[in-house]
Fold this protein.
Amino acid sequence: MSANAEATILITHAVGLHARPSVKFTKLAKSFAADVEIALAANGPWFDAKSIVKVMAAKAPKGTVLHIRASGGDARDAVEALVDLVRRDFDEGADHARSA
């Protein structure tokens, strides 16, 4: 049975979804079997969240509302994990944000 999940999250990381955060985001997305996509608007365009090139090309700065959707058996887990990663500022503390 295929499941679908979606969520939105505000990017608060100082540099947004840039190089280091994009690598962490795509690595986490790849750890799930579900198809995972992101968009900067609810109606798209949608980008493959498992592609570092496409995620970085989205150029999502701080303050962007990121739309995440997934489909597949572990879609809900994938979306929850990615939202949590963004909420934690991609596990980069304030020191990283200031030096970026």
Remarks:
- The chain has four helices and four strands.
